[in-house]
Amino acid sequence: MVNCNDDGLNRVDVNEIHLAEATAFVDQINNFLRHDEHLKAKKMIPIDPPMKLFERTNDGVLLLKFINKIAPGTIKEKDIKLDVDVTRLKTPGAKDAWEIAENNNHVVAGAKSLGCKVVNIGSEDILSGSVDLTLGLVWQLIRAYLMKSVNLASHPELIRLLKPGENILKLMNLSSEEVILRWFNYHLGRSDTEKRIKNFGSDTKDCEAWVHLLKQVCGREAVDAGIDEVMSIADPEKRAAKLLECAGYLDCRDFTSPKDIVKGHGRLNLAFTATIFNEYIGIRLPTEDEIDAIYEELEEVKKKLGECREGCKHLCDHVLELERSKAALEELIKELEAKTENIDQQCIIKNQEYKNIKNTKNGEVERLTDILKEKTGKAQTAGEEIESSRFNFAKLEAEKASVIHEQIARIQVLEEELRLLAIESEDLTAQIEGKGSDISSMTEKLLRTQAASGDKSRLVQDHVDSCNAAIRQHASNLSDEFKAQVGTKPNNNATKSADSAEGDDVSSEVGADTTVTAKPTPEDGEDEEYRALKENHDMLGSLLKAYSAEIEAVAEGFDKLKAQEKDRLNQINKAVEEFLGEGQTAVGDGIANMKRLLELMMEKCKKQAIQIATLEKRIDQKNQMNDLMADKVRVIVEQKMFQNSKRPSKKKGLGVKTAGAQ
Question: Could you give a single Gene Ontology term from the biological process aspect (predicted)?
Fold first, then answer.
């Protein structure tokens, strides 16, 4: 069905639409029924103003006569109740109500016989003068009149409207409005314009389509009517008025008005186009050759229809088979859907498991990566510490060498002092050849000097012994701490046994025999680190041992010097005793010499006491230096042990080699 209106029409005021349609319809009714004497006598014709249409048609008489005028014989004249009056509807005993209802029922039946759609239209609607329903009914009656010849039977030349690939059945199945629209576009296609229309509303508002249509169907007459002047007018309503003036010159101006064209009134514009169609179809009949081709096409169509019927039978059978296959496929699809749902559920579970495993592995990888970074950092730190330890050990070696050199120089100085003492003792011995008196006093002073010298010697010896004991104890503690830090580590593939430390020696080593059943892994970082720590421990032990040996050598040298000095004192005492024994006869002569000898010996003892005090002070300084060095070594070893104890092993087991196994 062709859309006579467009969306723009919906915006037009409804009352204005009703007035425009009523005006157009009343003009046609007045024209059709202008010679009816009965209607004129009852002053039902002409209808003026147009909105009086709804009062003049409520008794059904005017509509029945209009139906018979459109299609003569549709309503029998005897069935039309002419003497009815709407004003007598409420008069008691009057038959007007029944007769009016009968007339309106005949109107509905007559309109339906003409192909009008009368759904929801009844006698009461017409009697009440419903605007919408009355206008709709009148429009359908007018359209039925206008479109009764728009068909292939009335105009065989419409066969020209067939498009390539279409047959006559296609044209026969088109509605009257669709045929009019195709006829309109057919003539537009023959003109020199590319314009085409899809409706009789907005597509025709500018009048251009109608100008080309009239030039095609009317030819020279349209030009003489001034059709070429229409499109030169700028004002739309004046342009539409000029178009209708030309149409009036061609005797086809009906229904529409300039305002209806400009506003795109679909119904009235369709009626105007149908009027042009009925006056000037503009299509000639086909030639004999074209008719033969049409008949051949009809025969071909008949043949194809027969083939289609046979094909339909086969298709029906095939459809039944397909339906059976479809049912089987649906069952199979249901089974597959059930399996797919089960598989999807399993996939979801597996996917979740995979995500969980992936997350776990990612966490493990991140943890191992962090551990690896931490191990790498610790390894770098350990390397730096080892380098620092080596540097400190080198520094300690230099300090030890310096101390040794100082001690050797000091020993040489002591030896020189002892040599000088020996010379002085010889001089003293030579001087004691004189004889003197006051032997008891000299002997007492000598004994006191000897006692003081022995006390000094004992103090020095005790101090040296305490230093040695402290050094041994410190070395033993360092060795025990080292063994506790780097002692035997558990190994998954090895069994180990460790012996206790040997003795209290300063250079005691980790005396442990470790049995390793697993093959060593030289490339293992922990073995290399352990060997480096063991080497450091051995180096510290060797250093402490050498240092202790040097201290003991100094102590032994001091003991030897003390013993030699004691021997010299004994020799002096013996010489004095011999001198005194020999000089008893001449005691008085040797008193002066003895006094002088005693004075010299007192001075010598004072000097020796000063030298011993100086020696003790130097020994104290050396002991302080030794303590400082021992503290430094202990701090270095403790720091190293503490760091090694915090460093986790890279393997489950670590093969440990003792110093004896290296």
Answer: actin filament bundle assembly
